Amino acid sequence: MSGSPSHTVLSYRPLADADIATICGFARNAEELYFLFPRAVWPLTPDQVRATLSIRRDPTVVTLTEEGRERVVGYANYATFEEERTASIGNVSVDPALRRRGIADYLVRTMIDRAFDHHRLPELTLYCFSTNTPALLLYAKLGMVPIALETRVTPWGDPIALFKLRMDRVGWRSAAPVAA
Q1: What is this structure's pTM?
Q2: Based on CB atoms within 10 Å of each CB, which residue in 54, 99, 104, 120 is the most buried?
Q3: By percentage, how much of the chain surpasses pLDDT 90?
Q4: Domain ranges of the chain
Q5: What is the CA radius of gyration of the chain?
Q6: Cα torsion for 105, 43, 60, 160, to the nearest 10°?
Q7: Burial of 121: CB neighbours in 10 Å, binned 0-12, 13-18, 19+
Q8: Residue 144: which residues within 8 A CB-CB, separation 6 or more?
């Protein structure tokens, strides 16, 4: 991200309907869409995103504000949610022009914080395909550990491994960075 810290700010907020068209542009092709929204059909449309909102929880966007202008640069939600038990982070996606710049880290930390601090859940999970090495490394850095491996078949017929990762509230608190 360019600009000085005083001019570049990441924040999060609930998804607004006006954000959905931007989110639809995060996947650059059908393969990438499969990894971001496995049940979606290329090209991702606002109607497909809206259809998932009734079965997802806390759809959240990350915004980047530069020079007073805000734009949506990331999206995630809880794909599953069981009150007082667990949730699974889903649809983690970032604007392709801004990947590898800390936005996914901020987004996932936000979803983890909300799960443990706001919802008071004891554990959190997520699924990640084996080919998404940057995401797997991020999740490991944040303290998530693999607990299961499933075999899936991509829409184009290739087998692929899907990791299930988990963390608990105690582990997050011990791994969470201390504010300066």
Answers
A1: 0.92
A2: 104
A3: 90
A4: 8-175
A5: 16
A6: -50
A7: buried
A8: 126, 165, 166, 167
Tell me: pLDDT of 90 over 80.
yes
pLDDT of 177 strictly over 50:
yes
Token pair for 158: 């290739």
Q: Look at residue 62 and tell me whether its pLDDT is greater than 90.
A: yes
129-148 confidence digits (pLDDT tens): 999 999 999 999 999 999 99
The CATH fold assigned to 8-175 is Aminopeptidase (3.40.630)
For the chain, what is the HEC assignment? CCCCCCCEEEEEEECCHHHHHHHHCCCCCHHHHHHHCCCCCCCCCHHHHHHHCCCCEEEEEEEEEECCEEEEEEEEEEEEEECCCEEEEEEEEECHHHCCCCHHHHHHHHHHHHHHHHCCCCEEEEEEECCCHHHHHHHHHCCCEEEEEEEEECCCCCEEEEEEEEEEHHHHHHHCCCCC
Q: For residue 101, what are its two tokens? A: 């710049």
Percent of the chain with pLDDT over 70: 93
Q: Which residues on adjacent β-strands are paired with residue 66? A: 8, 69
Residue type, 163: F
